[in-house]
Amino acid sequence: MTEYNGYVSDETIEGADSGLLAGRTVAVKDNISTEGVPTTCGSAMLEDYVPPYDATVVERLKDAGATIPGKTNMDEFGMGTTTETSAFGAVENPAAEGRVPGGSSGGSAAVVAAGDADLALGSDTGGSIRCPAAFCGVVGIKPTYGLVSRYGLIAYANSLEQIGPIAPSVESAAELLDVIAGPDEHDATTQEAPGADGSYAAAADGDVDGLSIGVPTELLDGADEAVVETFWDAMDDLEAQGASYHEVDLPSVEHAVEAYYVIAMSEASSNLARFDGVRYGQSGGYDGNWNESFANAREEGFGEEVKRRILLGTYALSAGYHDKYYKKAQDARAWVKQDFDEALEDADVLASPTMPVPPMKRGESLDDPLTMYLADANTTPVNLANLPAISVPAGETDDGLPVGLQLVGPAFGEHEIIRAGSALA
Ligand code: GLN
């Protein structure tokens, strides 16, 4: 395995002899089901869980001839921004010593950054592909909701999340997207998308001549100075290649983080109810009382962050508070969607720093969950709006820390963000 702890397991899964990905390795995040190979979600609860079937994306990887070199480490059930909440230990950032790799798909980004896999799959509920891609200096794509099947993805917050590629270049990320995109009869939220015809890789032609880019001022306001500087350098680069940019307003994004966490935790509290030691998960024993048995299983199997979210989510959904929290968050979500739609009427894509901060020092964020949640300010609005986004390396700060640039497109506008991103990486 790796010294930076990128893999939870390194059992190899062989794909077909030929295909688009023949000869290439694609590491898979450990919340994506692999038949006969343990899938832990980074949790002690699922330490011994072996799925009886492959996720649709895994089937497609195998059909395309890819080799899966292992399952990658992650924040427990995808809940985190640093890949420090895994029951199997934190992941280190191979691109920035002493720093976190971002999360929750930190293992996937780390193995690609370190060259221990050619490509990887992550999942993105509120930034979990784009954040680690940005922190590890690689490329990550969060597809439009409904482009990629979630069948076999162990759910955290299913109205927000998508599986997507992490890769060293925009073109290779797009190649992987070509393989996994498209409708699936096992996931009724997938749809026939205009453009999901194997042409994403061809869109990575670097041609940004005439491209109109909107820059939401709200996503730069609270960001770290060194990050903002690196962002503008990359924007100058795009301008020199023929793109133009103008400022846009997204007033609703001020409420995105709070709306995201209410919705994500509410859905999580419901989705994680199945881990009770009877249906799924480590047994809590049985002493004549099932309530105690379930409580034991959940007390022992879940880590602190997961417990915090189940409690808060249950609270937000409870009868007396539903209107005050959950319903308000849904209203904010509709507002965020509307803001993005309006901004994208006058721009082909929107650009911002992927993360408002450079990779944090290891160990810094665990005691301060609120600060960690706020780091998701630029990524969570995109999930609330169900739009596609890519994170590409924008450069490094003076201290040598990777900075990512995020490009957001209209629904099913993957070609636009891939084309624009490929002008940088
Ligand atoms: N950091 C966010 C969270 O903890 C996003 C995680 C994700 O996208 N899975 O919820």
UniProtKB/TrEMBL annotation:
Tree of life domain: Archaea
Q: State the active site.
A: K29 (charge relay system), S104 (charge relay system), S128 (acyl-ester intermediate)
Q: Name one Pfam family in it.
A: Amidase
Give the InterPro entries listed for this entry. Answer: Amidase, Amidase_CS, Amidase_dom, AS_sf, GatA
Query: Keywords of this protein's UniProt record, alphabetized?
Result: ATP-binding, Ligase, Nucleotide-binding, Protein biosynthesis
A Gene Ontology biological process in which this protein takes part is:
translation
Which reactions is this enzyme annotated as catalysing?
L-glutamyl-tRNA(Gln) + L-glutamine + ATP + H2O = L-glutaminyl-tRNA(Gln) + L-glutamate + ADP + phosphate + H(+)
One Gene Ontology cellular component annotation held by this UniProt entry:
glutamyl-tRNA(Gln) amidotransferase complex
Under which EC number(s) is this enzyme classified?
6.3.5.7
Residue ranges crossing the lipid bilayer per the database entry: none
Where in the numbering of this chain does the Amidase domain appear? Answer: 10-417
List the GO molecular function terms.
Answer: ATP binding; glutaminyl-tRNA synthase (glutamine-hydrolyzing) activity; transferase activity
Subunit record text: Heterotrimer of A, B and C subunits.
Q: What does this protein do?
A: Allows the formation of correctly charged Gln-tRNA(Gln) through the transamidation of misacylated Glu-tRNA(Gln) in organisms which lack glutaminyl-tRNA synthetase. The reaction takes place in the presence of glutamine and ATP through an activated gamma-phospho-Glu-tRNA(Gln).
The entry sums up its family as follows: Belongs to the amidase family. GatA subfamily.
* Protein name in UniProt: Glutamyl-tRNA(Gln) amidotransferase subunit A
Query: Taxonomy-wise, where does this protein's organism fall, top ranks first?
Result: Archaea, Methanobacteriati, Methanobacteriota, Stenosarchaea group, Halobacteria
The gene name reads gatA
